[in-house]
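TA notes. Do not distribute before section.
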Amino acid sequence: MDALVVVDKPAGWTSHDVVARVRKAAATRRVGHAGTLDPMATGVLVLGIGRATRLLGHLALHDKEYLATVRLGQSTSTDDADGHTVAAVDASDLSDAAIRDGVTAMTGDLLQVPSSVSAIKVDGRRAYARVRDGEQVELSPRAVTVSLFEVMAILRPPQAPAGCVDVEVRVQCSTGTYVRALARDLGAALGVGGHLTALRRTRVGVFGLDEAEVVPAREEPWDLTTVAVSLDAAVTRAFPCITVGAQDADRLVHGIALPAEVARQAGWSGLDGVIGVLCDTHAVALVQPDNDRLRSVVVFAPDH
């Protein structure tokens, strides 16, 4: 099988747990995912099987959308509910207007310091592994874009710890953005601290919750053929595409770049970013403009 599977990751599962579940169902180890979700998070996880794993690095670069709950008034060691509380400040006097202003200020192009317990590698080891071993980890700021940071509701639920305020938000952001870091930074900007108590990813690029499949229990059978998105369909949906003839397709498969004029003749004038190439409706490659040529970045030639 060469296909994508879009699932709704359950809470408590790691992304690797889902990969293992798909490997079992597909009877192959050639399975990967496009963008990790923390165990506490739920929602859209896009997995590739077989040759479709070659798409994953490019799908992971697409924008993403989340629904989240930020708790103001408490800071935690992990910037989310899985960590222990390291500071508490009464946030009950915060006005709704102040909270909304704080959110607005964190929209747009930002320099964001990832959480110290992220999966970013520091000298060859994951940051979270270093923190777990008692090391102090300081990560460098990264440029990210938060195109939408919207307050959906501001709640003061009686079951929340005293002095805490819960803010339900919707976030649309570029790849590499940490929503728990947004929660941390919002709390810091408001002077009360904050962390993430819930996170649900609702979209990765063009793939949304409306087509995400519930992951069956580990012991249950799972027929992936009924839920898979074929490689051809995935390329067509996720990337702007051009169609070429068999001769040009063969050139790409053998690593020969095509003149950019081929794309223009096929009706594609916006020579920016990654472009899918089809031949007789079948995905041949992903290409990228390079000095007026189309250079293959991924080729989908059958394995031998």
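Switch to the second chain here.
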Amino acid sequence: MATQKTVRFMQGNEAVVEGAIMAGCRFFAGYPITPASEITEGMSVRLPPLGGVFLQMEDEIASMGAVIGASMGGMKALTATSGPGFSLKQENIGVACAMEIPCVIVDVMRGGPASGMSTLPMQSDVMQARWGCHGDHPIIVLAPATVEDCFHLTVKAFNLSEKTRIPVIIASDALVGHVRERVEIPAPEDVPVFNRRKTTVPPEDYLPFHGEEDGVPLWADRGTAYRYHMCSNCHTEKGFPADSNSAVMEKLLGRLLKKMETFEEDITTYKAYNTDGADTLVIAYGSCARSAFEASDRLAAEGKKVGVLQLMSLWPFPEKLVHRFCEGASTIIFPEMNSGQMIKEARLAANKTIHGLNRFDGKIIHPQQIIDKIREVSR
């Protein structure tokens, strides 16, 4: 008998937990940190009855290492943190990138640098999410704005990670993580779940880092006759180090980066709100998108058409999408709760003037501020 969807009133962080469970996550390792601790707490409750594993590690570095190990063993694995902990995870995130380990990392952003403002929201980690690890590595970053987004993007994060064998970061923030909203949780059979593809070749022919046509290597279960060697150095298709072999490095990195192009359409996620016929466009993500929707509605009541492009995938940056939506707009606003990190990417993609609206004092950008900015630049 088919199960029915359920309606819940829950936090964004709680919705991440439900999305992870629905996607098949059965391992969590983390360390409590404001404002992400509800994810750790939620997984500690939800995993054991399902036969999953919850570990509170001694720190964020170890947490990321445990996630890598669990995923290498075949489990879908999650960790969650905020800015300071996210910084500590970077080296092991780089290891996951190099060894193509599927995993999901949630960063519930708060004010920084260093300890900053532990309870207040900012969007200051979006560049770190892309470039926190050294090297020209691929990474996928998704950004929720609502509690419902938190659920669906967490499911999508696991599916993308399993499909591409690229770590996926969910860049939430303190407001999105703690706000409570009505959410419809679909029945499990209505949630698309992707599991990593496994090899069918005989063990003697298996190459753990041989990319298929889409660039993604097929998986082999651990503890079987299949031999594998996991290495974070420049490595051959067999997985063995080839540190000084430039040809091997070029082939390896080229394949890793190719995956981003291959799956660009799958990764690119957005919402378009009131954009039909709109001469003014607001590009926003996370908490700022919530204010942008309200600003659009208020101006619509005055007879003004202001569209909103909510970016739900930040990296790889959706250049084609942004260019397309900016083509017909004469006025473009980009509010961010930082000093202006993503606007640079948008300007390059649109090849147009885009006006920034920035706030980095731990307070949200209100709808009225967006309205005032639109009126200011439209004079």
